[in-house]
Amino acid sequence: MTDSHLAAAAPIPPYLTAALAQRFGPLAEEIAGGYPERRPVSLRVNTLKTDAASMKAALTEAGIRFETLPWYADALVLPEAGEGEVRTLPLYSAGEIYLQSLSAMVPALLFDLKRGESVLDMAAAPGGKSIQMAALSGGQISLTVCERDPIRFDRLKSNLALQGVRNVTALRQDARELDDFFRFSHILLDAPCSGSGTLLLSGKPRRMEADWVRRLTRTQTALIRKALRLLSPGGDLVYATCSILEEENENVVRAALSGGGCELLPVPEALSGQLPTLPVSLEGTLCIRPTALYEGFFAARLRKTK
Ligand code: SAM
Fold first, then answer.
1. DSSP 277
2. Which residues line ligand 1 (CB under 6 A)?
3. Successive 10-residue mean pLDDT values, the chain, 306 residues
4. What fold, for 41-99?
């Protein structure tokens, strides 16, 4: 396989073409073929407002066909409906569903959230995973969300309100500057990233260059180190990106581990075994392969040991 072969297939940024070829060898071409123009609409049933059985009945009533997945009862795929059609449904305006990619539903499932626990979503907008964590706990966690971008922060707040999330403190600031006085039992860091797992080839080619990715990895590393400082001893951190580049994923986790005071908890095989995956260079982390159904995604679990 040559770079020109990959580049000819679609407007994949040359930086990414080269990085995939270097990291994955012959598999790179298949990965590139997994960036489709469109994926079917997928949604998460918002169990703060309804339940999967009622939602299936409502979709059937609306004449919308859905498919289920073995790894998550609240996830539905709509093979025929467009997003526009779904957005016109009353159940959408009522916040009973959240349109979310399947891969993006995975990180929150890596936590075991119990009543009363204090959870930080460190880079939270537009809020899909915050809402999912609230729903997974039956609305029983004490949630703090942080988002730096003012426009995205407003969208985050309106999404949380629409979806019925209560007990939430919303902070509009750079998460690297959060007060070290805070302590949380669980932190989700869904880090700003290159989006190398989620290219949509029908759009404009993405800007993706070595310098930019290096700057991102510096931010990701600062954010993950901050997350570890804010975690209570024994607390869990999930680090996630929608990238499939090692420098934004395994290397950032390695940097966190090298600081000591934390350990890697393997992603349970019961979950990863049901997903399309890519090889990882750090055993126990999860890299989801871009396919016709899944976006490329990465997730790792860390526990603070002291
Ligand atoms: N978790 C979100 C969800 O599921 O809806 C998606 C998060 S998105 C991948 C990353 C977010 O981090 C963006 O909204 C971005 O504006 C925000 N962000 C980037 N740098 C940040 C920082 N230093 N502190 C806080 N938020 C930041």
1. B
2. 104, 123-129, 146-149, 152, 174-176, 190, 192
3. 38 89 92 82 98 98 97 98 96 98 98 95 98 97 98 98 96 98 97 90 71 96 98 98 97 97 97 97 97 95 95
4. Alpha-Beta Plaits (3.30.70)
